[in-house]
Amino acid sequence: MAIDHLDGRIIVLLAQEPRIGVLEMSRRLGVARGTVQARLDRLQSNGVIRGFGPQVDPAALGYPVTAFATLQIRQGQGTDVRAHLSTVPEVLELLTTTGSGDMLCRLVARSNADLQRVIDRVVGFDGIVRASTTIVMENPVPLRIIPLVEQAAAEGRDRD
Amino acid sequence: MAIDHLDGRIIVLLAQEPRIGVLEMSRRLGVARGTVQARLDRLQSNGVIRGFGPQVDPAALGYPVTAFATLQIRQGQGTDVRAHLSTVPEVLELLTTTGSGDMLCRLVARSNADLQRVIDRVVGFDGIVRASTTIVMENPVPLRIIPLVEQAAAEGRDRD
DNA sequence: GTACCGCTGGGCAGATTGCCCAGTGAATAC
DNA sequence: GTATTCACTGGGCAATCTGCCCAGCGGTAC
Fold it and tell me: Is A35 near strand D, with its CB below 7 A from some atom of it?
């Protein structure tokens, strides 16, 4: 579960140059190719690296508006609400949070006006009592993981 | 900027099997390899596909607790607060939202107890007036983009 | 002392990549 | 109507990388 320094360097390198191959990585890191391969296999089977899916920018797809909606759920309707929200393409993420029956929902829309349509669709479901929406203006720190990886790698004991 | 049906299929295929190569994709999609290559290049230079970085699971790294903090910022301190927060590895994302001087901050921590340490570090800065934290319990819909891509692809006009 | 484990450094065949080309069909410009 | 542009096809090429194998080496655990 814990990662060591070499694991950290592999992940960082992979994040900086995703198209890089195992062979080139081994050259940059100064280790044998088999080592990098084994580390990568382990990181993936550990679940540390979930995958290498394409990172798609909703804005470039025509959905430049991001918002968060806090939903208050009627008792016992949680499952139905989840099923409902998962059918809405503009719902990018759904989290249940502390507080009675609350969910946090990440939305995108084509425009501020379009956001109204999305919200109507989101809250147009019986189990949702109340919704409060916050529009995102800027994203000073886009979703990142590298600093955390570096911290975890620094704390881990090296395997060699 | 708009994507068509083939673009959508490329992105979905790539999301499902990230390790797939251009050649294999062209076979699956029934088009020439050069076509897939050209589409991919266009999607990347368009910014629709930002990259193929590894998706790292913070929980597997030893940070199983996720939380959101809403921060109230002292007037004119926005820039300093951003700089401060970007130095905290446990801050995975930072967004500015509507409402006076508000920011939304995605955090992770090693445990609920450790979350206190992280929050202390986050709010231990002059420009932050008040912070309110919500702990994430479940993640019924993990960050996803496929449904949105499919919707965008269905709406787009085919290029052929 | 022995077994285990991770790393090294090498080799191999097969597949893939990046790059090139000419030809075709459709839409657009003139 | 004709010319141009554009995307796609289908093919070929050398260079590279991958997946897979092996023996050897140095720690560590028992």
Answer: no
Residue B126 has pLDDT above 70, yes or no: yes
Q: Is B159's pLDDT higher than 70?
A: no
Identify the pLDDT of residue B2: 83
Indicate which CATH number applies to the domain containing B9. 1.10.10.10
Q: Which tens digit of pLDDT belongs to each residue from A41-85?
A: 999 988 999 989 999 999 999 999 999 999 999 988 989 999 999
Q: How many CA atoms lie within 13 A of B4 on its CB side?
A: 9
Asked if the structure places residue A60 within a domain, the reply is: no
- Through-space separation of residue B119 CA and nucleotide D13 C1' in angstroms: 59
Residue in B closest to A143 by C-alpha: B93
Specify the nucleotide whose C1' lies closest to residue B160 (CA). D7
- What is the number of structural domains in chain A? 2
Burial label for B19, CB within 10 Å (0-12, 13-18, 19+), is: exposed
Show the domain range for B46: 5-54
Q: Are strands A128-141 and A65-73 parallel, antiparallel or unpaired?
A: antiparallel
